[in-house]
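Question (not urgent): is this output format expected?
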Amino acid sequence: MSPLISVIVPCYNQAIYLDECLQSVWDQTYTNWQCIIVNDGSTDHTEETAKKWIEKDSRFLYVYKKNGGLSSARNAGLEKASGDYIQFLDSDDTIHPEKFTKSLSFGTEYPLMVSQFTIYKNQTYYPGYNCVKQDFLTFEGIVFGWDLKFSIPIHCSLISRNLLDGFLFDTSLTSCEDWLMWIYVMKDHPKVLLLDEPLAHYRKEDSNNSMSSDLHKILHQRIKILPILKKLYGDDLHDRLSYHIIEVRSSQFIQMRNEFNKVTGGKVISGYLAFKKYYYKLFQKK
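Got this back:
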């Protein structure tokens, strides 16, 4: 019997994109799926859009909840899901019509299947910001490479429900929550199938209010996740990752400083150091 796929679509005030997202699910050539639309307290016409699809096809299900954030909405979808596999799909993203068919077309059943992706911006598709490689898809690869060498949009994956047993997204996080999911999924070293074609499409619109545009917030969230990792996986992983982040970021800073010196001929830095030396001498006399 063909496995059932549960698609979880959290939506908060993105009704403008929701039709396109749900259309990409409805267009799947693989038909044994259910799609759970989670309205996270939207104030736009998300509910009207969702109910239109429920009337169109009984495989669409609708859940309304008080606004609690993306992680809370995904958790509500997980509680409702009854599929053998989970497909996360944010309401502004889409998937290729053959994503499910191609993922499940191999003789061996894989607990985790991951595809390449494109960036969808201003009605144009671009190559993903990184090419997903097989060596990324290991526990060590996810822990030590995430956001430093690569990141993978969550809807690239099709995940066995068994891998997600006991997992809930951390509602205290506003980013990196998907990183924790990947770490959890990879902790027992499951067999992974990499589909080397873009079957997921990630929408990236210009927004000064987005989390990805605020590097300070991103750094804050990465620091915030460290004690969570320590609690889940122990001191060794926490310490190794902390030192790894410090080493990588320090190396990046040194490289940037060297490149800056090449461009300026060191004049700006030497001027700054001379001023700093003068500043300290001035106040040491007082």
